[in-house]
Write a structure and sequence with these properties.
CATH topology of the largest domain: Immunoglobulin-like
Strand order of the largest sheet: 1-7-6-3
CATH architecture of the largest domain: Sandwich
Number of strands: 50
Strand content: 35-45%
Oligomer: single chain
Number of domains: 6
Structural class: mainly beta
Length: 692
């Protein structure tokens, strides 16, 4: 709807105009939060303002109706009121009422009117018009003439309802009796209180002139397009005088009561009677001009005759539409529902008729449309849901085109930014991660990095990483690994041992900082790689108590005879646990690896009589790591004629006397130890005796 108020001009600042909050049904307590305001064109003066505390419309600065509305008639201030959340538009018209603050004034305080003494009774002589910028009853209402014995006054009305006065001859003039007459003309307006202005008129009586000029007709009408250039011929006037010589030469000029605006726009060639265009016409300011022209000859007793010329202006489509974005609510949330108002657009075409009728359209393929709210006002609204991640910004072109021929158009660009809503969860770059870590790593070493992306922006795209709670071999996962919440880098908190734990998995979460926050999880598989950090361990044979493993071999053994086996294990894996067996010196025996944990010792040839009956072998077990680790075991082989009934692979026998007897070095050590002990004991005894 539309509200209309009226306010007198010239009110002081703060004067009450209307209670908009009450009339519009708005909650005054929310006016400030909803940014209730008057929107106006750029550069326009803000004559009125709204108090956001009570919703009252008041005078912001003094309003001069004659300044705001140069043309007469109704003076309206068009206000567009806007309130947001939700965005609503109201239209208010405030009529500025005229007060009688101007008195009528004449262009000259005194002027001369020449009248021939031969003028007939009832002859009319137009007088200079008074001007009053007020309108209606406050403008010039009537004229009065001071009492005299020769003239009376008649007030005439122009087509625009303005008044002018004509002097009417009531008594014959006689130049020999009185050559001049003085009268006082008073113009009065219709205001309360009444205001007036005066002008002195000197009527000079001229000798009789036989003939006076005469126009072809008393009134003329002509049409002229408003875009006619200066110098255009408006009309050719013609007045004839039957006298000869100077008395028959006619001169043309504007009558004294021709309005000042007419004198600014038009010019009369005094001798030819051509009315020419002098200024720029504007149909939107005035579509009719009334010209009052007088003609008189050049004789000594010239009498002026008058005619009226009505110039009708033809509207030309000379004003392109004006597009003004009176309010823009941008950026718009990407989850805004269809129908959300983004902007209020006003269009204005100063032409009239079809030339001033405007239609608006948008560039195609956009999720927006224009809806007409008031005449020449549109709202730009969404037609579908927006997606900032697909299109973060729209360049909207608004075309305003009038209905003139040819049509004029104006394009205005509007950038609509789409603000982000946290509608996208983070997404990891991989569906899962597999990480390989060498055992015996240093605590605190970086083992991998995970990364996620969030197509949202700003805080909705800021990600923090964390490890979900859980246990690894009964211990909290937080004792094994940690993660940098900003970068996603993961670190091992302890040294891993392949022989204790070969693999485990953890859940990593990426969460954005939106409200409410969104998150995503990913599984990280951590595999511990083996390192050759364990040497082989020989489990069979096992020498004990200073003895070595022994084996009995029959002297009759043939080549390939199985003497015994050596078994070992390695805690590592893969190549690091692949074992090989070999003899460290060349002998008559060979060693074969028949399984990863077992090596077979076999003879290479038959025993000879000269072969020693006891042979000591050293077997080395080596893994396949880099570098390789190894272990050795000593074997004592006894060649016998016949084998006992029951023997293990490697039996334990006491060493023969020559092998078990102490060496001289051992004897020396025992003697030295005994001597030292005896000396120490003797020293203690002597010291005790001395003390006693």
């Amino acid at each position: 709807g539309q509200l209309r108020y009226a306010v007198p001009e010239e009110l002081e600042h703060g004067a009450f105009v209307a209670n908009l909050g009450e009339d519009l049904g708005l909650d005054v307590s929310t006016l400030s939060a909803r940014r209730f305001r008057i929107v106006s064109r750029a550069g326009a003066r803000q004559h009125l303002e709204v108090n956001l505390e009570n919703g009252i419309l008041f005078v912001n600065e003094r309003i001069d109706r004659e300044e705001v509305c140069e043309a007469g008639g109704t003076c309206l201030l068009h206000l567009q009121l806007l309130v947001e959340s939700p965005l609503e538009l109201y239209r208010v018209e405030v009529e500025v009422l005229d007060i009688n603050d101007h008195a009528p004034t004449f262009p000259w305080q005194e002027y001369v009117l020449e009248v021939a003494e031969s003028a007939v009774l009832g002859a009319r002589f137009p007088l200079e018009s008074a001007q009053d910028p007020d309108v209606g009853t406050n403008s010039v209402h009537t004229y009065r003439l001071s009492p005299n014995g020769y003239f009376s006054l008649e007030v005439q009305t122009r087509s625009d309802a303005s008044k002018f006065a004509e002097l009417v001859l009531e008594r014959a003039l006689d130049r020999e009796q009185q050559r001049a007459h003085r009268v006082l003309l008073t113009a009065l307006d219709g205001g309360v209180p009444e205001r007036s202005g005066t002008a002195h008129i000197l009527v000079t009586v001229l000798d009789a002139n036989d003939n006076v000029p005469a126009f072809d007709q008393p009134s003329y009408g002509v049409s002229l397009p408003e875009d006619a250039p200066a110098g255009t011929l408006v009309i050719q006037l013609n007045a004839t005088d039957l006298d000869e010589g100077p008395n028959g030469e006619v001169e043309y000029s504007f009558s004294g009561h021709a309005p000042p605006r007419v004198r600014e726009l038009f010019h009369i060639e005094p001798r030819s009677g051509q009315v020419l265009l002098k200024g720029a016409l504007d149909y939107e300011r005035a579509h009719l001009h009334e010209l009052y022209v007088q003609a008189k000859d050049r004789g000594p007793s010239a009498v002026a005759v008058h005619c009226r010329v009505l110039v009708h202006l033809l509207d030309v489509n000379d004003n392109a539409p004006e597009v003004t974005l009176t309010s823009v609510s941008t950026p718009v949330l990407e989850d805004a529902p269809p129908g959300t108002v983004i902007a209020v657009i006003s269009v204005l075409d100063r032409d009239s008729g079809d030339n001033g009728r405007v239609s608006c359209e948008l560039s195609p393929d956009l999720p927006f449309e224009l809806r007409s709210s008031f005449r020449n006002y549109y709202t730009l609204v969404t037609t579908q849901a927006l997606d900032r991640e697909a299109v973060p910004e729209y360049n909207v072109s608004i075309t305003a085109r009038d209905m003139g021929s040819p049509a004029l158009l104006t394009r205005s660009a509007l950038t609509v930014s789409v603000s982000d809503v946290n509608d996208n969860a983070p997404r990891f770059l991989q569906p899962s991660y597999s990480v390989y870590v060498m055992e015996n790593n240093a605590p605190g070493a970086s083992i991998c990095s995970v990364s996620a992306l969030d197509p949202d922006c700003q805080q909705n795209a800021y990600l923090s990483y964390s490890i979900a709670d859980g246990h690894i071999h009964g211990m909290p996962v937080g004792t094994y690994v940690s993660i940098n919440s900003d970068s996603g880098h993961m670190y091992a908190l302890r040294s891993l041992d392949y022989e204790q734990i070969r693999s485990f998995q953890i859940q990593v979460q990426a969460q954005d900082a939106g409200f409410p926050p969104l998150s995503a999880n990913v599984t990280v598989h951590i595999f511990v790689l083996d390192q050759n950090d364990n040497a082989p361990v020989i489990v069979s044979p096992m020498p004990r108590n200073g003895s070595v493993a022994t084996e009995l071999v029959p002297r009759s053994a043939r080549p390939g005879y199985l003497v015994g086996t050596v078994s070992a294990v390695d805690a590592d894996a893969g190549l690091n646990s692949r074992l090989s067996y070999q003899l460290l010196q060349a002998t008559d025996f060979t060693l074969f690896s028949v399984a990863p944990e077992t090596g077979e010792l076999r003879t290479l040839r038959s025993f000879l009589e000269q072969d020693a009956s006891r042979q000591q072998l050293v077997v080395q077990v080596r893994d396949g790591g880099q570098p390789a680790l190894s272990a050795t075991v000593s074997l004592l082989l006894s060649v016998v004629e016949t084998l006992p009934q029951t023997l293990s692979d490697f039996s334990e026998f006491s060493l023969p006397p020559e092998a078990s007897s102490s060496s001289p070095l051992t004897l020396y050590l025992l003697v030295s130890l005994g001597s030292i002990s005896f000396t120490f004991l003797l020293a203690i005894l002597i010291l005790t005796a001395i003390r006693c």
